[in-house]
């Protein structure tokens, strides 16, 4: 058995080790890599941008360096917002503005990004610290407040319209990663008034569905024109929340939604691929509904209606271009919001793609339902059709799936 003296000695040894390890950690934290003036495509292990710049060589993005000229505001640095901010930081965005009033809690550890030792710190402070270490080339601006109170809202509007990469200029994109209706409406109000393009994101309270939505004031439906996914119809959200009952969340769904959101931001800012107006994610069926919604002329937000008028004027002033394609048929014109839904699917297909409406608390409706058909299994014959020849592979290697002949392009 060890004597008290021996134990005291052991404690001292361990304390010294702890101090040393803390010093090492703090050294590492202050050893930020030097800033990089110019993004380079040079393929060396020390270049943090080589894999991103390779997107140019691959013909995906024309001018990747442009990412450094953009400022993006992320409102809500929780399960979706923190991952969104990390992705943009790693991609080398010019400037990030982070807004959140919450603190990191151990109850957040089922999600990505934050770590247990950060519990108690403000989310924006903890996030900035981590992100600066990952990429010191990004400029950060953090605001530890609730944007929905009157004073903070005014300040929020001011930073959106003046906090761009060059002070005085507006930011290039606002991302809503908040978890409540009130904050979404605040962002919506601000962006409608400023004519600021933004993207909305959300994850359902049962953790198995989510969505992203691009909102161009005056052109596409704003959040007040058509609240997506869940509609809290003039009911105080606090009355919907009961004591001891909290929303469920999964790191997977939140990671997927953050990924879809940032992918859409990159496509929008860097000009590649097709930018989605609305993209849903239903994790239960792996169903990704997408659509575009026009602004509602009867929207409650007067700034939205004003932006619509201005957009119409601009449209008229623009020189008429020969329309090659026929205008898409507008379906569901007579819904309760007066929204025109342009869809690629026919009425019958739409009906097939809908399922039973689940039981929900008062004031909440669903934006889409899960079609019964998707639940059915694929037949053997269909499976065979969906497979192709197995390629020649070295011994011990097999393929997870093959490409059916039907979908192979004739020329590669
Ligand atoms: Zn609107």
UniProtKB/TrEMBL annotation:
<dbReference type="GO" id="GO:0005829">
    <property type="term" value="C:cytosol"/>
</dbReference>
<dbReference type="GO" id="GO:0071569">
    <property type="term" value="P:protein ufmylation"/>
</dbReference>
<keyword id="KW-0067">ATP-binding</keyword>
<dbReference type="GO" id="GO:0071566">
    <property type="term" value="F:UFM1 activating enzyme activity"/>
</dbReference>
<dbReference type="InterPro" id="IPR000594">
    <property type="entry name" value="ThiF_NAD_FAD-bd"/>
</dbReference>
<dbReference type="GO" id="GO:0005524">
    <property type="term" value="F:ATP binding"/>
</dbReference>
<keyword id="KW-0479">Metal-binding</keyword>
<keyword id="KW-0833">Ubl conjugation pathway</keyword>
<comment type="similarity">
    <text>Belongs to the ubiquitin-activating E1 family. UBA5 subfamily.</text>
</comment>
<dbReference type="GO" id="GO:0046872">
    <property type="term" value="F:metal ion binding"/>
</dbReference>
<feature type="domain" description="THIF-type NAD/FAD binding fold">
    <location>
        <begin position="49"/>
        <end position="300"/>
    </location>
</feature>
<feature type="coiled-coil region">
    <location>
        <begin position="4"/>
        <end position="31"/>
    </location>
</feature>
<keyword id="KW-0175">Coiled coil</keyword>
<keyword id="KW-0547">Nucleotide-binding</keyword>
<dbReference type="Pfam" id="PF00899">
    <property type="entry name" value="ThiF"/>
</dbReference>
<protein>
    <recommendedName>
        <fullName>Ubiquitin-like modifier-activating enzyme 5</fullName>
    </recommendedName>
</protein>
<keyword id="KW-0862">Zinc</keyword>
<dbReference type="InterPro" id="IPR029752">
    <property type="entry name" value="D-isomer_DH_CS1"/>
</dbReference>
<dbReference type="InterPro" id="IPR045886">
    <property type="entry name" value="ThiF/MoeB/HesA"/>
</dbReference>
<dbReference type="InterPro" id="IPR035985">
    <property type="entry name" value="Ubiquitin-activating_enz"/>
</dbReference>
């Amino acid at each position: 058995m060890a004597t008290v003296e021996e134990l005291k000695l052991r404690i001292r040894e361990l304390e010294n080790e702890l101090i040393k390890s803390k010093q090492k950690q703090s050294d590492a934290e202050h050893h930020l890599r030097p800033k990089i003036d110019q993004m380079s495509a040079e393929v060396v292990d020390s270049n943090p941008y080589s894999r991103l710049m390779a997107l140019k060589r691959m013909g995906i993005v024309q001018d990747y360096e442009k990412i450094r000229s953009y400022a993006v505001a992320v409102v809500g640095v929780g399960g979706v917002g923190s991952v969104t901010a990390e992705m943009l930081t790693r991609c080398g965005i010019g400037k990030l503005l982070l807004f959140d009033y919450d603190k990191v809690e151990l109850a957040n550890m089922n999600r990505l990004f934050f770590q247990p030792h950060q519990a108690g710190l403000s989310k924006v402070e903890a996030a900035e610290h981590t992100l600066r270490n990952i990429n010191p080339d990004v400029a950060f601006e953090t605001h530890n407040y609730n944007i929905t109170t009157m004073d903070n809202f005014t300040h929020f509007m001011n930073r959106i319209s003046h906090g761009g990469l060059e002070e005085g200029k507006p930011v290039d994109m606002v991302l809503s990663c908040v978890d409540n209706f009130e904050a979404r409406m605040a962002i919506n109000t601000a962006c409608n008034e400023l004519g600021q393009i933004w993207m909305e994101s959300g994850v359902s309270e049962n953790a198995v569905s989510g969505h992203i939505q691009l909102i161009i004031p005056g052109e596409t439906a704003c959040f007040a024109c058509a609240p997506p996914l869940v509609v809290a119809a003039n009911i105080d959200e606090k009355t919907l929340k009961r004591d001891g009952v909290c929303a469920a969340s999964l790191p997977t769904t939140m990671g997927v939604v953050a990924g879809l959101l940032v992918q859409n931001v990159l496509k929008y800012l860097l000009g590649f691929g097709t930018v989605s107006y609305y993209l849903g994610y239903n994790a239960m069926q792996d169903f990704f509904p997408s659509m575009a919604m026009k602004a509602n002329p009867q929207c409650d937000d007067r700034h939205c209606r004003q932006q619509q008028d201005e957009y119409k004027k601009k449209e008229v002033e623009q020189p008429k271009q020969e329309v090659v394609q026929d205008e898409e048929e507008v379906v569901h014109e007579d819904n309760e919001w007066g929204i025109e839904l342009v869809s690629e699917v026919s009425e019958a297909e739409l009906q097939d793609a809908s399922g039973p409406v689940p039981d929900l608390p008062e004031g909440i409706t669903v934006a889409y339902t899960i079609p019964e058909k998707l639940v059915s299994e694929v037949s053997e014959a269909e499976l065979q059709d969906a497979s192709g020849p197995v390629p020649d592979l070295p011994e011990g290697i097999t393929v997870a799936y093959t490409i059916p002949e039907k979908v192979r392009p004739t020329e590669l």
